[in-house]
Please model this.
Amino acid sequence: MTCRCAENLLGHSMRSLVVENDLLSAVILLDKGADIYSLVYKPADMDVLWKSPWGMKHSSRGFDSAFDSQTAWLEAYAGGWQVLFPNGGFENTYKGARLGFHGEASMRAWDYEICQEAADMLEVKLSTQLLRSPYTIERWLGLRVGSPVLHIRERITNQAGEPMDCMWSHHPAFGAPFLSEHCVIDTGARRLLADDDYAGAANPLTPGKTYDWPSADELDMSRVPSPDQERDLLAYLCDFESGWYAITNQQLGIGIGMCWDAGVFPYAWFWQEINSSPGFPFYKRCYVIAIEPASSIPGQGLSAVIKKTGAQLTLQPGESREVEMKAVFYQSSSGVAAINNDGIVQLK
Model:
């Protein structure tokens, strides 16, 4: 099979883009943040990304009922993988603009163009301009025949005539049937920092405490809980030797890994919702984890980052920042020792 790209319609009205080669396929939601809605490893016919039980919201049908940005974001959250920019976490005000929950980029429609489509490789460019904040975002996705790697290059640009602060992260969420108690997490991080303000319905971590990965209060955080082991936590992987992680399903013998430039994303948010949180939106019915390469902590909104850690990005007028990431599939029942910058997986 050659590399190919095709625009489709999901459900009633959601424009999507399918990019694929002989080993993987990805569906991108053009009308909703350029979310990577599915990421399938073809040899196993396995989509590793989580899907929310409330499904996909179609903007051309029904009426919006949410009066706050967090409810609106969660109503539109169909699962998959989002970019969170220029805010991450709680709604807050910055330079007179009310920054919505998890930022504007994941709620915007994006444009695309095919840069290269050949038998052996594919490159697609996606882009959008924010309305509430003066930024443009561009993302290039690349595939090569015979390679289980999705290449991602993303650029943010400050279009203002003044310096701008922001948060920037990627939010891939993983779910069943790939996710199970047979999954093990490996990473280049050496420490795990529990969020200082996240209580959680069943949070085993001490807020604000730093742990040496993977041990945390007598728990092995590298082991994914089973669906009946309730857990609800937010923490941050940090002190990366190099930016990578891998989730291996030892029973299925397959895994998904990510690598990135830790100079741009020195953290990875670590979220687990294991059928624990009552009420909206999870109603104790969601089995999902996310490991999210990020520029900034904590995930409490830009104002909290500026106040608590000073870990925000600051872009001067006209300045751009870029990051390169790779998502890679592999076959293993033991786990991963490392993933290098080229997406090459070293197995244990």
About this structure: The mean pLDDT is 96. The chain has two helices and 26 strands.
